[in-house]
Write the structure tokens for this entry.
Amino acid sequence: MSSTKVIPEGQAAKQVAKVWAACDTASTACLDNKTAIGRQLLHSSRSVKDNIRELQEVIVESQACSHSSGAQSVSDDANSEVDLDFEADAMSPFELELAESSIPLLQVVLDVFKLLIRTLLTEDIVSEASTLDDWESLLFHAKGLSAVSNDLGAALFAPQDASEVTSAAGSLNTGCELVFDEFPGHLKDGHAEATESLIARLADAHAEYKTQAGADLFASGRRWNIGHRLRRRLRHRDGQTLQMRLEGHRPQAMPLGIDTKACKLGSFFCSPGLPVTISLHKHTQLSEAVVKATSVATLKLPPTHDASDVPLEAGATVHEAQ
């Protein structure tokens, strides 16, 4: 017994449009597994390539841009936490070196995708179930690699957070190693030389990056321009947002941060005596926070909180902002 669906009056055109849209989608669907995997690999590789291009453009712009000390002052009024300027900030010398040292790492990732695509073109994965499983595993790790490269590219825009950049670069290195490990044995034999070359380049690029991002640079006396603002928006465990701001110089690795029982929200680096402002959201539970500082910190609180509620470690000095 067949059933007939009656289209309401005036809805026929919409239903016909849906049918044609489904037909258009079907016409662009991949005809086999190789095409489907290749299309996703190509999309991921383009994302990595775009990251490299955009980063190179930012580096060139930063090199050409000159800044004078104290060119931008920081306002402490009620609207100081609202930043509606979406233009990219110029990189400091340290940020510039870190960005330049990251490009070879991203280039290796791009070459890994090129190797995967070239290998896919010579591989028959339509009917071999075991081979298809290998490629699906490779595709899974390749997508993760593309996502991490996006994270690294975003973290390299000024103002940078060195810990986030370093974490993304380490994840990128691990992601490449996972892709190499997932290479099927019969593919490794045919592409052993190319794979070994990429592994060697990856090791060199990562070592160079770690040299640039090492703690010695933080302690080398490099200074940011006076008036430079470093802002971070960190997710609290209950979904609320903490806003932190660091003003002035950043020459030495002396930790200032806020920890909760659930997770570490982050840390900053400052020199002794550097004025640092920490702004807390009104929903932050101060009883669960610990302020650690080697310099004087200003704690900016909403009216519902009291600075005396914040537990301090030895050597930390915190007072409420006026």
